[in-house]
Amino acid sequence: MKLINKHVEKDGSGYVTLRPEDDEDMWHVYNLIAEGDLVRALAVRRVQTVSNTGSSDSYRVRVNLTLSVTKTTFSPAASSSTTAQGEKKEPTASLQISGRVVNENEFVRLGAFHTLDLEPNRDFRLEKAHGWDSVALERVEEAVKEGRGAEIGAIVCGEGTAAICLLSEHMTTIRQRIEVSVPRKRKGGTSGHDKAMENFYSAVYQAVLRLIPYQTLKAIVIASPGFTRESLYDYIFQQATLTSNKPLLASRSKWIKVHSNTPHVHSLVEAMRAPEVAKMLQGAKFAREGVGLDKFHKMLANDELRAWYGPEHVALAVERGAVGTLLISDDLFRSSDPVTRNKYVDMVEAVRARGGESLIFSSMHESGQQLNLLTGIAAILTYPLDVEMVEQEEREEKERLAREQGEIEKENADGEGDNNDDHGNQGNA
Amino acid sequence: MSRHRFVRGLDLDDVVERDDTDDGMTPEQQEQMATSMPIAKAFLKDIRPPISDDAIAQSLWHYWFDVDKAVTWLRKDWEKKGQPIPIELLPCPGGPRQRPHRPSHSVTTSAAPDSAMKNLSINTTSSQSSSSTHETEVTPPAQESSKPMSKLALLAQKRRETAQTSSSPSFQSAPAVNQPLTSRPEAPSPKPLSKLAQKMAAARASKTQPGTPASDTTEHRSAGIVSTMMRDVDHASHDELYPAPGSTSNPIMAPSAFFNILTKSTPASAPFPQFTYHNHIPTVFDEDDLIRRIHAAFSDAESPDDIVLRALSCTSLLPVVSQVLTFSFAKASSPATPSTPKSVSQPGKPRSQPGSLIKSATQPGTPRSVPKPKASSSGNRTPTTPGPSGLSTARQDLEGLHLGENADQADLDREREKFKEKTVVSVKREDLIAKVKREEAESGKQNMSLIVVGHVDAGKSTLMGRLLYDIGELSEKEKTANERGSKRVGKSSFAFAWGLDALGDERDRGVTIDIATTHFSTPHRNITLLDAPGHRDFIPAMISGAAQADVALLVVDGSPGEFEAGFERGGQTREHAWLVRSLGVKEIVVGVNKMDLVDWSQDRYDEIVDSLKPFLVSAGFTASKTVFLPLAAMEGTNVLVNEDPLLKAWYDGPTLIDILDKAEVPTRPYESPLRIPVSNVFKGQTAIASGVAVSGRLCSGVVQVGDRLRAIPGDEVGSVRTIEVDDESAPYATAGQNVTLYLAGIDPIHLAIGTVLCPPSQPVSLVSKFTAQILVFDLQSPIISGTPVELFHHSVNLPATISKLISISEKGQVTRKNPRVLQKGTTATVELTFRPTGGSSKVPTLALETAAENKEMGRVLIRRGGETIAAGVVMEILA
């Protein structure tokens, strides 16, 4: 993504002009635009005119429109027509923004609805309705960072199933799923099994050629339980040798075989944690996310009191300044309710202010999805805190506050009475 | 003048009146007749019995007084008599002129185009009338019989004639009665004659039969019947009337016409029409009447038929007949007994098999009791009788005769059905269940599935290979091939394991990857053997196998350090034990393998037993049901026999096979609806059948060939073509058996590993969200709500989430609601939801049932990150 223009005041008002370039940029934009924001972008508007005689005429105009966003829709890698080997593919993710037009022009009336498709390589201007907060600004910063992120390919497979994925800093896209029914071993002949496995390998090989830009990727990971990864790796390079596919053979050093416990896509997290992959990724964001989640689980096992999850509990921990690492999913920031979003933004800022670490998980990654399952927010505390005790204290605190409030009110009421009395007294006096 | 016109103009009465007087002839014609008649008579003089003048005159008239032609025709006619003469042959066999019958005919046709039927009747009546006089003189039976008998007599006459012409032309007037009685030098006499003789004998036998209260009237009638019958019998093939030598005792399946005659006891009960009925459809009869008659006829009969009867009643073919016959032959003695049934066979005996006199002589005891219609005998031949080919030809013959036209079509159908039923016996489900239970109780041999589990390289496959080899399931040839093969790749110690590890990868790497299924039997058990992989990566396969098992054999490595490696955290010994227990295996046998490596040290053995025992008890196995034994798979010690002196010194317990033979088999839920979780789908050929096949274990219910099954998930229904149990085709399979079903009418794309087959009327529910009661195992990090897991159910595993922690309970009491985490060892109720598999929003579903509905369909295992974290049972289905 390119930052074309940025004009943000101290108070958060102002606008940013951006030019998205690829799928991931679309994802960033999707995360940036919230309900109520103003988006100005080039749109194609169908204009209908009715003449005096009653004949209607319609034509399309390209016009810059400013919308007050009511809805955004993101679909990752909807379809792909890229066939070029090893070339950088065209963006396939699409982002649609619906809203009311706020700036009237000669074609469109004020308040008319419009849905625009945000296109890659075309500028748009975004103005936040509730001002630019730190999380949003951070997102912009991240998005425009040059040469960001490692892109890697991954094949998670088992006997007869494979998922071919592409991972970027903020997204995991499953390009293809391959399922071949493989008969299992039987007494008296394993030819059915062998034949089906051969079919399976060849299907995966074809998919690899089509979908994995192995020349530009940093690494390609084959993860599987058992021996499937070995067999698949052997098959791919045997085929490459047979067809003298030079680029593929040249990429051999990028291929990593990793153990995973299941052939399901969620084993990607496991695969990304593997030391040989982590080394390749050199602290890429999604690797950090995976590590953070793993740490949380370990902490949960070792010291239950230091691993908290759930918005309320984490909020309490943040309040007490106990959070060392905050794990939060970007899902939560997409909340349509600005108050909720602000709450989370405040939490992130509070943790950072105390020197803690805030990891914003991309829900487009497997790790982010797993975090979403754990309510989307979790925290590793710097010191143990008993949730129940805290809750108890909170309750007491609340009661105390309520009591105080009651007392104050009472006092006020009394005061008023007193005042009246005073008045009376004064009056009397 | 056209004679047609002439005839047409005739007054019928007038014609009949003038019939005798030959008035229709012109004077010249009369003159011609007078001259040619004596000539013709002279020519026909040798024919016996003499042809009546009328007939000669008739033919002469017919041939325009051409004596030669008339004589030839008359001769021919005589030879043919007794059979219905086709109309075209009747008056003018290719005759020179088309002419209506002269008024001289006994019954005149007034119009030229006679119907075939009419002609037929004309023919028969005329032949009867013309021949009856002669017959009465010649054949004694005919003498006694009155008019209806004449046709039989006619037939007999005709037969005799043909016999005469064939054997000796000069042999003219031997009475039919004498023929059989005279010892005949020409033993292989022509069949037609003997047939006749047989019939005659039968007829007479019936007469003389003391047991039969045959009255004259009945005799009359039966004689008449014989005449009508004869025609049918003539059509029938000879072998039906002449039972093959040695099989004279063909069972009486149904009363033939002769049978009816023979056993005719109550004239009133069998009016004439009924005869034709019996005659045509041998298997259809009035049961009571038959019983009565058979009883009367064979009151003291002893016949080899009863062997057949017994066989018959066993096969339960023709149930009615068998019932009847068993009743009537209740007193029948062994077929070997030489005493002949007095009633029937004695008078008939000498004539019984004229065609094979010598043979019949050697078998004096063979009762020629009743001539059997072949269709009936075909149904239940004894092994000694001609095979089914004769049967079917006989059947075809019968059908060719259109005898069934008058018969009840339903009965015919039923008869046909019986032949089909031999191959496919479709029984009602309740009956089948009852039968299975009975058979199980009788044979005392129960089906059992055994899973072999244990840490990787404990020697599971080798032990099983050895067991199969010792027991004879693995042939010497295969064994040597495996030995050679494994030696070649430098893994000679895997020789026995190769018997089960058939996949290329498995052999290359020396690791079992997938379950190997095979079977063997011990004296009291039919055992399906499931050899599980020990490697932790292949636990899904092991679970798939364990879900099909009743009994587990846990193999532990006794060699130094190895047992510990498998038993410590991360070893599969523990996990496997938990897994099999939570999948419903209650009985476990622990084989301490590789004891030869520690020189059969009892200390080592005890050490292992001591450390395993408490663990197994904690895993939920009853101590009393847990058996330990030392083994050496490579040597085969203590597998089948214990011959090692070192081991014998301190161990005298049972060998592995002994233990397996006594293993307890759980009761099977036969009555529950059928459930077959598919563990393998393949398309291929085996010795049994080819096509789409699925393997799996019947969790409950019964299945038989022809059943329609629905594959869930999906809306496809297929039917069972063949059932393969233990490499053999079976008509049905019951809960607890591992089967391969060959399906018809379903495309293999609708079948996958994890599909559940069930009756279309009682499908399994498809579930995407449910609650389960789980027991949490040893785990690295506790379960919190939202924990991503893999859910294992039979052969499938799906990504799922523990979406809600509902409660923790202890000893059945809920101790805490909405817990935050589940630590190890807790029992909890949780809510599980399947996860959409990345990208697609479609939530996967699984065919599940609650444990209350079906125990085996309600068991799930929960794994995470390569370790089994919990096992549970489905409590409630939510979505």
Automatic annotation (TrEMBL), chain A:
GO terms for cellular component: cytoplasm; Dom34-Hbs1 complex. GO terms for biological process: cell division; meiotic cell cycle; nonfunctional rRNA decay; nuclear-transcribed mRNA catabolic process, no-go decay; nuclear-transcribed mRNA catabolic process, non-stop decay; ribosome disassembly; RNA surveillance; translation. InterPro entries: eFR1_2_sf, eRF1_2, eRF1_3, eRF1_Pelota-like_N, Pelota/DOM34_N, Pelota_N, Ribosomal_eL30-like_sf, TF_pelota. Residues 395-413, 420-429 have a biased composition (Basic and acidic residues). Residues 1-145 form the eRF1/Pelota-like N-terminal domain. It is found in: Cytoplasm. Gene3D superfamilies: 3.30.1330.30, eRF1 domain 2 (3.30.420.60), Pelota, domain A (2.30.30.870). Residues 391-429 are annotated as: Disordered. Its cofactor is a divalent metal cation. Keywords: Cell cycle, Cell division, Cytoplasm, Meiosis, Metal-binding, Mitosis. GO terms for molecular function: metal ion binding. Component of the Dom34-Hbs1 complex, a complex that recognizes stalled ribosomes and triggers the No-Go Decay (NGD) pathway. In the Dom34-Hbs1 complex, dom34 recognizes ribosomes stalled at the 3' end of an mRNA and engages stalled ribosomes by destabilizing mRNA in the mRNA channel. Following ribosome-binding, the Dom34-Hbs1 complex promotes the disassembly of stalled ribosomes, followed by degradation of damaged mRNAs as part of the NGD pathway. NCBIfam families: pelota. Belongs to the eukaryotic release factor 1 family. Pelota subfamily. This is Protein DOM34 homolog. It comes from Tremella mesenterica (Jelly fungus).
Automatic annotation (TrEMBL), chain B:
GO terms for cellular component: cytosol; Dom34-Hbs1 complex. Gene3D superfamilies: P-loop containing nucleotide triphosphate hydrolases (3.40.50.300), Translation factors (2.40.30.10). It comes from Tremella mesenterica (Jelly fungus). It catalyses: GTP + H2O = GDP + phosphate + H(+). It comes from the Eukaryota. Its main location: cytoplasm. GO terms for biological process: cytoplasmic translational termination; regulation of translation. It is found in: Cytoplasm. Residues 124-133, 331-343, 382-393 have a biased composition (Low complexity). This is Elongation factor 1 alpha-like protein. Residues 445-670 form the Tr-type G domain. InterPro entries: G_TR_CS, GTP-eEF1A_C, HBS1-like_N, P-loop_NTPase, T_Tr_GTP-bd_dom, TRAFAC_GTPase_members, Transl_B-barrel_sf, Transl_elong_EF1A/Init_IF2_C. Component of the Dom34-Hbs1 complex, also named Pelota-HBS1L complex, composed of dom34 and hbs1. GO terms for molecular function: GTP binding; GTPase activity; translation elongation factor activity. Residues 105-123, 163-182, 206-216, 353-366 have a biased composition (Polar residues). Residues 85-220, 331-394 are annotated as: Disordered. Signal peptide: none annotated. Keywords: Cytoplasm, Elongation factor, GTP-binding, Hydrolase, Nucleotide-binding, Protein biosynthesis, Translation regulation. Belongs to the TRAFAC class translation factor GTPase superfamily. Classic translation factor GTPase family. EF-Tu/EF-1A subfamily.
